[in-house]
Design goal:
37% helix, alpha/beta, TIM Barrel, homodimer, eight-stranded parallel beta sheet, 14 helices
């Protein structure tokens, strides 16, 4: 499998993380005063106390996991027969109180990703990119989206789930308008929840990383219900969302609960034209990792039916993170058609690959 | 069916709300300065914009729903053949910044409940009560629990899920020690989430009641994971919790996710002696209302198996609230043994009735 020539059909991996080998790679794209101020980003108080990156993913030269495209190909892409990898860089720009700084860091990550991972001249790129935005300044984020529209290998916009308001609220609409205009889905990824300027979506701060990480799903549940009840998909009929790393098994119960409430409370949300859950198939997708894996495989297969996985679920590995889902072992044996949908066709269609 | 004499076997309803007919009924039990300050409590900005109480539950004399024991018996207890009703008054004392005021209001509700709904001299009371506490002051809450220990008809302690810190954290332990000492489970009920001094368990404030109400489950998920990861059930082996009105369908996925994380991160929580989910059966129960009801009955039956409903689920109606679950219609047809467990035996055993 090579970068040139038509790529063989294989797995589409919807969540792979490329990292700069050194912060100077990002500083290179920043102007002052941001260049001097930039010290990288991270979760700070919710850092993984064991290892957030797979130890075996460190590069042969000792660089950070995910920082060497050649090694990433050998260690992940070629090993599993991956046809395309959707790259989600970790800029952590949503941490910053200063929206100008946040916007500058987002732009720097986009320039870095375009220059180092996405070859504009290669029609058949293995890697597809995400446009990082700082949702603190929706107008600036919309401009950043415009800046990359037309690039052949950026396939979506991305932001972290950490926020100061649920994502269905109207201050964010310039972002969704730009996404819809250019056909970019918005990918939401965890990482800044409860840190920096962002609100923690639990009743107070969790104590441990295991607790914080397990409960990341509460941010995703909140944002999804907000999108649905605020009527974002009525206002922007072309707008689409993909929830990455937020889990999937909470979806059926949450939609049942929301649909039930809608029957009693539709008076509040008259802009909805159908049951809230009925917007999912046209507008929302889920990346699978970390798939919640029960000891009883049947239970997962039942959940897959409840969430309509054949339509909305797309495989993701989260390489090179500690909770990586192996394409070989993350799922139990699936019916062939469902397997094809999850590991290839749903993403191919969603991203128009 | 009468209050005197052995009650017939029927449904045990784990969530019925008694209301004072007038705030003066509560003021009667308050001393100054609290008596003058008390103006009732509520959710304020997240009030139900339609009707929070069933319109048909207003009393014949025009009083608030749930305020007349005789009418409640006729309209709910006798209609469905309810053997026991666990009463959860709505004091909303967790709203107050002043822990002395909060503690006084909690105590007043307990006195009011004991005098008006729980007949100490009747051995076979239809109604069983909950001891309201203000978790803002755990030491005072423990004293309030002590005050009622030995009363024949208080069967649990209760607090709202709205909080400033997850309930597994150690500042709350005097409450759990008192609960464990006297064999009282702690019931957690929604209602003050995101209002008063309490943190909203979503990334920022929801816009609508439908959104806030649908997402109440995030508080419950957070508190449960906190109990489990902090090792509360190792520290207090006799301590038990019942989650009321927080939903149940999120449980399987959340436990799968937590158990998976435990395998990678057990280093952080060395006090756990088994998988986090393995503590549920001995320590945690769920009241069913509002049961998430899918259009496909099989899906709910599958969820029931995943959560081990035959062990941990107890029927609740939430009378007289808008989203009341009818004992007749809330569930699809259940296997006889499972029905018996959910509608009677699990609660009988949990509350030692």
């Amino acid at each position: 499998m090579t970068l040139s020539g038509k790529r063989q059909r294989g797995i589409i991996d919807c969540d792979v993380h490329p990292y700069p080998a050194h912060l100077d790679e990002i500083r290179h794209y920043l102007r002052e005063p941001w260049k001097s101020r930039y010290k990288g980003g991270g979760r700070g108080m919710y850092d993984n106390p064991v290892n957030n990156g797979r130890m075996d993913a460190r590069t042969p030269s000792g660089g950070p996991a995910g920082s060497d495209p050649a090694y990433l190909r050998e260690h992940h892409i070629d090993l599993y027969g991956i046809e395309r990898a959707i790259l989600l860089p970790r800029a952590f720009c949503n941490l910053y109180p200063d929206p100008d700084f946040a916007t500058a860091v987002a732009a720097a990550f986009n320039d870095w990703l375009a220059d180092n991972w996405l070859d504009r001249n290669n029609e058949d790129s293995l890697f597809k990119g995400s446009i990082t935005i700082a949702h603190q300044d929706p107008a600036a984020a919309a401009k950043e989206i415009e800046r990359w529209a037309g690039h052949p290998h950026f396939v979506q916009v991305m932001t972290d789930s950490g926020a100061r308001a649920p994502f269905g609220q109207r201050q964010y609409y310039p972002i969704y308008e730009a996404c819809a205009k250019h056909g970019f889905p918005l990918a939401i990824h965890p990482g800044t929840d409860g840190v920096g300027i962002n609100i923690q979506a639990t009743p107070g701060y969790p104590t441990h990383f295991i607790e914080w990480h397990t409960l990341l799903c509460t941010s995703f549940m909140s944002h999804l219900v907000s999108f649905l009840t605020e009527g974002v998909f009525e206002r922007f009929p072309e707008f689409r969302v993909v929830l990455v790393e937020g889990g999937v098994s909470w979806l059926p119960g949450l939609m049942w609960r929301l649909d039930q409430n809608y029957k009693a409370l539709r008076y509040e949300v008259p802009w909805l034209k159908k049951l809230p859950s009925a917007y999912l198939n046209d507008h929302v997708r889920f990346a699978s990792q970390p798939i919640e894996r029960p000891s009883n495989d049947q239970h997962l297969l039942q959940i897959m039916e409840m969430i309509d996985a054949k339509t909305i679920l797309m495989f993701a590995s989260d390489y090179p993170h500690f909770d990586f889902d192996s394409p070989k072992y993350a799922f139990p044996k699936l019916p062939e058609e469902l397997h094809q949908r999850i590991f290839n066709e749903n993403a191919r269609s969603f991203y128009n690959l």
